[in-house]
Amino acid sequence: MDTHSTVLYYVKSVANLAGSPRSFSWTVSQFGAVQNTLDGLSVTSQFTYPQFLATPDNRLQLFYRSAVSGNGVAQFAEYDGASWTNLGGYTSATGSYTYNGATSTARNLYINGVTYSSTGRLHTSGTWRENDGGVLCASGGLTNHDTIWLYSEDRGRTWYNNGGTKVATTGSSTVSVTTSGIIVDSLDPNHGLMNQESQTVDSANQPHVIISYVPGRFTQCVQSYAADRISYARPFHLYRSSNGTWTKVEIPFALGSSGRSQIVMDASDNVYVILPFLKIVTASKSSGWTDWTLAYDGVAAGLNAFGEVTVDRPRVKSEGVLSVLYQVKSSGTTPSAVMVADFKLNG
Question: What Pfam family is a match for this entry (predicted)?
Fold first, then answer.
């Protein structure tokens, strides 16, 4: 449930509610009381950005940030079907980052997601947010910089960099801003780089990440990240080849938004990126993911979607259907509808 650097709010249902939804009446009585622990396990008093993930061996993992923006740790807990275990952090807030004549000594890693490939490899990517605003050229910017990538072969217990070198052990030796071999796209903090976008993996078990920022051809110094992103930000498709090289391609569609995008792939490894306001752009594997076209325009279709959307990733994989959850725009405190749009993918 909703948290932001607060205590945890955790609720669980009766068994099999999600697995056999038509066998139950979906009422409050199917859920237990709100807890501030994971069935008695205390994890942190400052809990933010929970993400559940099912492991290949049917365990349930809960990734989250402890502490606060600019000074926090990415960590996770795991449920084995009977009880929760807190495995701890795999990133660190410590270390020094110097830019614009200032040195920041605290930060947090904002992750784009956590994704298992068919081999059981766990992928995560993200961007660092510095605590010290002095690293910025203008106070209205975002202190986010660089895109990093890590992988794990043991459900997140140990982590490796792009070259295959072990760089962290969850709960003890963690990844920091000075860890070598983890940056896969270098970018300074003056371009309004967005945090917490999205990622996926292809059939060759390689990661694909969406990032977005204001390219240098527009400015080398974002003055106001929201306004400048609306005016100038572009999305980029960042992906890894099996030889370890990374490629970044600018998607030729302006965001027109300060918000985030979602990336999915169909069974043929064609890429679909769902931009803010439910615009869907796509590129084919056969083109090397370069033939970007607009497949659906939610603005032209009159959906009136509010900014960012979210997607049902398991359904893409199991049924080849892209289900997009969005909220209709409203003003002030006026409630508005939450909708789902379904798209059958061709691949």
Answer: BNR_4
**Domain shared by 239 and 327, yes or no:** no
Query: What average pLDDT does the segment 36-40 reach?
Result: 96
Show contacts of 12-16: CB within 8 Å, 24+ apart.
12/39
Are 45 and 163 in the same domain?
yes
CA distances from 221 to 114, 137, 148, 189 (A): 31, 6, 22, 9
pTM exceeding the 0.90 threshold for the entire prediction:
yes
In degrees and rounded to multiples of 5, residue 61 shows phi and psi of: -110, 145
Sequence-separated (6 or more) residues with CB below 8 Å from residue 188:
99, 145
DSSP state of 285: G
Instruction: Identify whether the C-beta of residue 238 lies closer than 8 Å to the C-beta of residue 318.
Output: no
User: pLDDT tens-digit profile of 272-286?
Assistant: 999 999 999 999 999
Distance CA 264, CA 283 (A): 11
**Structural domain containing residue 301:** 267-347
Classify burial at 188, counting beta carbons within 10 Å of its beta carbon; exposed 0-12, middle 13-18, buried 19 or more. Answer: middle
The SS3 of residue 322 is strand
User: At which of 214, 231, 260 does a domain end?
Assistant: 260
Q: What is the SS3 assignment for 54?
A: strand
Closest-CA residue to 198 (of 65, 46, 312, 294): 312
Measure CA 220 to chain center.
Answer: 25
Question: What one-letter code names the amino acid at 48?
Answer: T
- Exposed, middle or buried by CB within 10 Å (0-12, 13-18, 19+), for 35? middle
Last residue of a domain, one of 217, 233, 260: 260
pLDDT in tens, 172-196: 999 999 999 999 999 999 999 999 9
Please tell me whether residue 77 adopts helix, strand or coil conformation: strand
73 in any annotated domain: yes
Give the Cβ contact number of residue 241 at 10 Å: 10
- pLDDT of 1 > 70? The answer is no
HSE, side-chain direction, 13 A CA sphere, residue 22: 0
